[in-house]
Amino acid sequence: MPWKLTDGTLNIFTPLIGTWVAQSDSPKGPVMCTRVFTKTLNGQFIEVRTDWKFPHNSYQELGLIGLDENRFITFWTFDSDGNRAAGRWIKLKQRHPHAFGFEIEMSHGFTRQIYCPHAKTGFEWTVEMHAGNDWQQLLKHHYKPFDL
Fold this sequence. Notes:
Blueprint: E1 18-26, E2 29-40, E3 45-53, E4 58-67, E5 73-79, E6 84-91, E7 100-106, E8 109-117, E9 123-131, E10 134-145
């Protein structure tokens, strides 16, 4: 997947446009997570619809990625449990030359979502929480293209 980090445009999300699926274990049992990235509102935003399917329940997220009033790439997310958050885009070249993410201030502290190209196919999505002077990994998924 050819990722290209450019500043100030939504073109960096082009490799993510489409439907992606990851399967993983969780404290609630096995989970299948589907992420759908689409351009919306005349290309001014990227819509991210996420569906988490657990053995006995599910959880949905609706996200929008776009430029805020100061022209910073920003992520706004709204969840089926009523929570919402916003975060700013960051480069994470220390992780991978093409890795990027969003730092989000939550009620329990700072978290970040990281998108990183996978060596073979798709991408890795990681969530970390700021703990002291370091980041602690909370979860990691390997997303692969969804094939009908």
